[in-house]
Design a protein that fits this description.
Elements lengths: L7 H11 L8 E4 L9 H16 L3 E6 L9 H14 L5 E4 L4 H13 L3 E4 L3 H6 L18 H13 L8 E4 L14 E5 L13 E3 L1 H11 L4 E5 L6 H11 L5 E5 L11 H9 L14 H7 L3 H11 L10 H15 L1 E3 L1 E2 L2 E6 L8 E6 L9 E6 L2 E5 L19 E4 L4 E9 L5 E8 L17 E2 L2 E2 L4 E8 L26 E8 L11 E4 L3 E5 L8 E8 L7
Parallel strand pairs: 1-2, 2-3, 8-9, 10-23, 12-18, 16-19, 21-25
Antiparallel strand pairs: 4-5, 5-6, 6-7, 11-22, 12-15, 13-14, 15-20, 16-17, 17-18, 21-22, 23-24, 24-25
Helix pairs in contact: 2-11, 7-8, 11-12
The structure holds adenosine-5'-triphosphate and magnesium ion (2 copies).
The site of adenosine-5'-triphosphate has 15 residues, from helix 2 and strand 8.
């Protein structure tokens, strides 16, 4: 990553440092609203905010943007902290926008006193209607020219709880004909009689995002406030409040949000999947949440690698989900130990192998990492191979097992198929094979070539395991694109989870939750939270793109 060209945010920060702005200091923030679990889009933002600060010797604050009491909860606060730490980042300070409610309130009074804010009695509906359109100026509120004294009195009474929800709002007095609709007297405060997860019932007026965010940045002396592109139209308002209050001049910069094919990232939609039990929870391995990816078997490194590869764009785009899968594959290839597992077993009896004999064969744990060492794999007269690795009437280029054909068993011997046993329905139930004792370890002394190498487990030693095979949660690459009048969930893939029973080698008996392995020739698998020593459960993280010679 040191090689790639600088992105536009790095250019801006370097220019600011060079110009000695803010004494060369860099302070960023990550500002989640605690109304859901973090997802891969947030991970992009976390990597960017923390990454930029790290790169330029700065710091990053974690600020909970908790200005909406209705949808927020401490469960989310805790999960957000856990996920950021798991990704490998540590914040300089943990702040809450709600900690600034008193300061924000004082500043609102200050704006009223300067004649820059007023209490409006119009209904929400009237306010919306009178805002005008892009081509038509808005209409001024009949309450727009209240005196400072009246505004102060009403605003204080709003705070004191004298009015019902929606009865009054506080608005900035800017320009009802402004070409930017957001500048047409935006709402600063609304009345919500609801308990807040931190401030309890202390407040019944709550600041709007636009009134809270920039000032919160300013209070913390954030130098570079990075947000997604759709906020660019909010920037003039961000600057307006800071300028009128004469406070620390934080600056907002926008980058393109991360969009992923086959993925929805709206927290509202993710919450719906959880509430309607379409998934097992926020951390379902099919969810794009950080906790879901973790349970699926993603590593923090793979997600950071992905965030870096995606880069920083100034225009919206959609990243292919396969890039995320590529990143986890790359990372797990380096760190995951290899094991053998058979997901769709077919029994093989090696007729010339002595009955009752067991051998411990040596297997390399990770060819990419010598320090991972070796392990012993038991071999015996009866083994399981993958049903797909045998064909009774194979096509020409089938290099796996077939009648009369010879293959190599990984770490073990060459075997040749002598006989196919079927049940009364003609279903293949067993193969009878013979092995070449001289081919131990997978080479034969006469140098004869065997193209196919199969994975296997010893039938007498293998351990049963539940294997969860995941597919994409949505069958459409653009799941947010739903035909008029249809539920957004029409694009859900009904077959996104397939549970099977397989056999794994006995070395997997003592695994811990979230341990990660490559099951040779099958993919990467991770131990699920539901796994116990008596009932192993593995999640398939991702299949292998490249398998060794079939
Ligand atoms: P939603 O609208 O679904 O609730 P949000 O963007 O409001 O999501 P926040 O908790 O406010 O969620 O987001 C915290 C930070 O993460 C914000 O700075 C936001 O810009 C950033 N972020 C959210 N989604 C993405 C995304 N898809 N790509 C990049 N950054 C994102
Ligand atoms: Mg939101
Ligand atoms: Mg937000």
């Amino acid at each position: 990553s040191g090689e790639r060209p600088k992105n536009f945010l790095e250019e801006i920060i370097e220019a600011d440092i060079k110009a000695g702005k803010h004494g060369g200091k860099v302070l960023t923030r990550f500002p989640p609203e605690p109304n859901g679990y973090l997802h891969i889009g947030h991970a992009k933002s976390i990597c960017l905010n923390f990454g930029l600060a790290q790169k330029y010797g700065g710091k990053t604050n974690l600020r909970f943007d908790d200005t909406n009491p209705v949808k927020e909860d401490v469960e989310y606060v805790n999960s957000i902290k856990e996920d950021i730490r798991w990704l490998g980042f540590e914040w300089a300070n943990e702040f809450y926008a709600s900690d600034y409610f008193e300061q924000l309130y004082e500043w609102a009074e200050e704006l009223i006193k300067k004649g820059l804010a007023y209490v409006d009695d119009q209904t929400q509906e009237e306010i919306r209607k009178n805002r005008g359109t892009v081509t038509q100026p808005g209409k001024e509120s009949p309450w727009r020219n209240r005196s400072v004294e009246e505004n102060l009195d009403l605003f204080r009474r709003m705070r004191a709880g004298e009015f019902n929800d929606g009865e009054k709002v506080l608005r900035a007095k800017i320009d009802m004909a402004h070409p930017n609709m957001l500048m047409r007297d935006p709402i600063m405060y609304r009345i919500i009689h609801a308990e807040h997860h931190r401030t309890g019932n202390k407040w019944c007026i709550y600041p709007m995002y636009d009134y809270a965010h920039g000032q919160s940045d300013s209070i913390e002396k954030i130098t570079h406030s990075i947000c997604t592109l759709e906020f660019d139209v909010h920037r003039p308002l961000y600057d307006w409040f800071i300028e009128k209050l004469g406070i620390f001049p934080s600056k907002q910069y926008e980058f393109a949000r991360l969009n992923l094919s086959y993925t929805v990232m709206s927290k509202r939609k993710l919450l719906e999947l959880v509430q309607q039990k379409i998934v097992m929870g926020w951390d379902d391995p099919r969810m794009p949440t950080i906790s879901g990816l973790r349970r699926r078997g993603y590593t923090p490194e793979s997600i950071r690698y992905f965030a870096d590869k995606v880069g920083v764009a100034k225009r919206d785009n959609v990243i292919d989900l396969s890039l995320l899968e590529f990143c986890v594959r790359e990372d797990l290839n380096k760190r995951a130990e290899r094991r053998m597992a058979v997901l769709n077993p077919l029994k093989v009896v090696i007729t010339n192998y002595p009955e009752g004999q067991v051998e411990e064969l040596e297997a390399v744990n990770n060819p990419e990492d010598e320090s991972a060492g070796k392990r012993k794999v038991p071999f015996s007269r009866e083994i399981y191979i993958e049903r797909d690795d045998f064909m009774e009437n194979p096509p020409k280029k089938f290099f796996r097992l077939a009648p009369g054909k010879e293959v190599r068993l990984r770490y073990a011997y060459f075997i040749k198929c002598d006989e196919v046993i079927k049940d009364e329905n003609g279903e293949i139930v067993e193969l009878r094979c013979s092995y070449d004792p001289a081919s131990r370890g997978g080479q034969s002394p006469d140098g004869r070539k065997v193209k196919g190498t199969l994975h296997w487990v010893s039938a007498t030693h293998a351990v049963k395991a539940e294997i969860r095979l995941f597919d994409r949660l949505f069958s459409s690459p653009d799941p947010n694109n739903v035909p008029e009048g249809q539920d957004w969930k029409v694009n859900i893939n009904p077959d996104s989870l397939k549970v099977i029973e397989g056999y794994v080698e006995p070395a997997l008996k003592d695994v811990k939750h979230l341990d990660k392995f490559q099951f040779e020739r099958l993919g990467y698998f991770c131990v699920d939270y539901d796994s116990t020593p008596d009932h192993l459960v593995f999640n398939r993280t991702v299949t292998l793109k490249d398998t060794w010679a079939k």
